[in-house]
Automatic annotation (TrEMBL):
Its main location: cytoplasm. One of its GO terms (cellular component) is cytoplasm. It is found in: Cytoplasm. The lineage of its organism: Bacteria, Pseudomonadati, Bacteroidota, Flavobacteriia, Flavobacteriales. Residues 163-331 form the OBG-type G domain. Belongs to the TRAFAC class OBG-HflX-like GTPase superfamily. OBG GTPase family. The keyword Magnesium applies. Keywords: Cytoplasm, GTP-binding, Hydrolase, Magnesium, Metal-binding, Nucleotide-binding. NCBIfam families: Obg_CgtA, PRK12297.1, PRK12299.1. Mg(2+) binds at residues 176, 196. This is GTPase Obg. SUPFAM superfamilies: Obg GTP-binding protein N-terminal domain, P-loop containing nucleoside triphosphate hydrolases. It comes from Bizionia algoritergicola. GTP binds at residues 169-176, 194-198, 216-219, 283-286, 312-314. An essential GTPase which binds GTP, GDP and possibly (p)ppGpp with moderate affinity, with high nucleotide exchange rates and a fairly low GTP hydrolysis rate. Plays a role in control of the cell cycle, stress response, ribosome biogenesis and in those bacteria that undergo differentiation, in morphogenesis control.
Amino acid sequence: MTEGNFVDYVKLYVSSGNGGKGSAHLHREKYIEKGGPDGGDGGRGGHVIIRGNQNLWTLYIYKFKRHFKAEHGLHGSKSRSTGADGTDVYMDVPLGTVVRDKETNDILFEITDHGEERIIAKGGMGGRGNWHFKTSTNQTPRYAQPGIPGEEIEIVLELKVLADVGLVGFPNAGKSTLLSVVTAAKPKIADYEFTTLKPNLGIVEHRDHQSFVIADIPGIIEGAAEGRGLGHYFLRHIERNSVLLFLIPADAVDIRKQYDILLDELRRYNPEILDKERIVAISKSDMLDDELKAELKEILDGELPVDYLFISSVAQQGLQELKDKLWKTLND
């Protein structure tokens, strides 16, 4: 999937159909001069329904079409004939899509299961025909109910990436390089910050034909929780991951300080994120000789409160050990 095709935030206008009018028809037939009321009911207006689809990974299908309208119900007619219901409109979305009211920003619901259906705009009920209003004192009512208008609402679809492992790190820490090596994904890679502007997903093949999904998400900077840099754009995707893999380059001035900054940004955005399992990978470790690696290991053993390991995506070092560690953590 190219970066331009990954769409995870769209604003849409949806409206359901109006209910059809009930009929005020009076029965007329040869030899029957004064037939009673026989007006049928109006049909229901079409719903707008949001449906989960596990085969979708992006909201790209809504990039160019932003208005969705369901059909109106048809009016009732003679012989108590009910008007046809308006056709429902189905909007398929990837799993992990949050639906918000654009005006209030309130979360209306979230789609997490394949085939899950939620009505976002309910079609108006059809009006009742005049035969419903026949009484002993009014045997030929000449009125019927109008249909109920449909609903209209502006909504926001917001996709939170569903992945087993989320890569957490500063810009240019080597996240995209790692993803390109351990999966078949082809993210954009360059030696400048914020090369990755959209999340990239890749499937890691493990032993015995097992696999798990890893997500390379735009890098954090200090102040991301307040919206600096790509701020909330990044952080909302990390909420869905089971394991957080912190990627810190071996040439960082202070590895523990970088880890603390990353952790603090996650805490300030959503403290619940810190309940997830965490692993630290020291990337670009091919720059270290054995002596430097031993010295750094001695420092980190006393500083880092979580499991860590040394890897190099370019030199293909420590990658199998990393995959084993991630697989074990996911299954524990």
